[in-house]
User: Fold this.
Amino acid sequence: MIHAGAPPTPGVELSVIIPVYNEEDTLPELRKRLGEVLARVAPDHEVWLVNDGSADATERMLGTICTPGSRWRAIHFSRNFGHQAAVAAGLRNATGRAVVVMDADLQDPPELLEQLLGRWREGYEVVYAQRVSREREGPAKRGFAWAYYRVLQAVTPVDIPADTGDFCLMDRKVVDALVALPERNRYIRGLRAWLGFRQAAVQFERAARFAGEPKYTFRKSLSLAINGIVSFSKQPLRIATWFGLLVSLASFLLGIWFIILRLTGGFEIRGWASTVVIILFLGGVQLLTIGIIGEYLARIYDEVKQRPLFVVRSVDNPHGGH
Assistant:
C-alpha cells in the first residue's frame, strides 16, 4: 500500500530508490548489476523503482522484475510528474535504515554502494556521490554544469556541494526529516544540504549512459537549475533591486549632463539611435525584473494550491519479500 502520511516504520537495512522514465534498454543490465552488488554488500534490502509515466515497454518489464516475494517493487505514476517527484515518492515509501537514491541509466554505478554504505557505517548520516569527471558530455554541457554549481554556491546561504546530483545515501533520520518538509517545488540535493547532519563525499567518475538517449534535456536541466537557485536564494530579487538603482543613478547623472550641456551652449539634437538603445535597455531591465519576480510568484502559487506531488496509478509487489 502506498504511503502518504507519516514515514514508514524502519524495516530493512537498505532501501534503493530509482526513478525510471522510458528505460526499457537499461532495466535488464540495471537489474543484473544492482542485484549482484546488493547481494554482496546489503543482503537485507529493498528496491523501489518509480515509473514516472513511461511510454515504452518499461511498465511491462517492471512487472516481470517486481514479482511477488521479491525484494523489488514498482510504483507507477498516472502520468509524468518529473524526476524530483519520483524521488519523493520513493522516499515516502522506503523503510530502510539507510536509503540510497540513484538513476536508472547506470551513470550512477551500483558498485559505488559499497563505499556509500562504508561511510554510513562509520557514522555519517548523508553520504553523497561527487563527480570528478563526465564521460561523453560535450564541452558546453560540462561548462554549464561547472558554472551553475559555482553560481549556486555563491548566491545561496546553504553549502550545496559542487558537482553532485541526487545520487547519495541518507540515514533514516535524514529521510524522515526530508519527507516531513511541506514544500512542493523540491530540489532534493539542496534540501539534503539544508537539513545538515554529518555529511561526507565519495568521489567517482560518471560513466556515459549504458543505453538509450538522455532523458534530462537542456530545457529540463535549465528548469532544475533555476528551481535550485530560486528555492534557496533571495539574491535574484536583490540583483533586480540593484539593477533598478543603477539604472536610476545613470539616468540621473545623464540628466545632469544634459542640463550642463544646455547651459553651456554645447547641447545639440542628436540622432534617434541613442534614444532607441536607451529605451530598449530600460525595457529589457524591466522585463528581466518582472521575470525574476514571476519565478518567485509561480512557486508561491504552486505552494498555495496544495496539490499532491504525484498521483499513483498502481503498485507492483507492494509488500515485497524479506
User: Anything to note?
Assistant: The mean pLDDT is 78. The first helix runs from residue 27 to 41. Residues 90 and 175 are 10 Å apart (CA to CA).
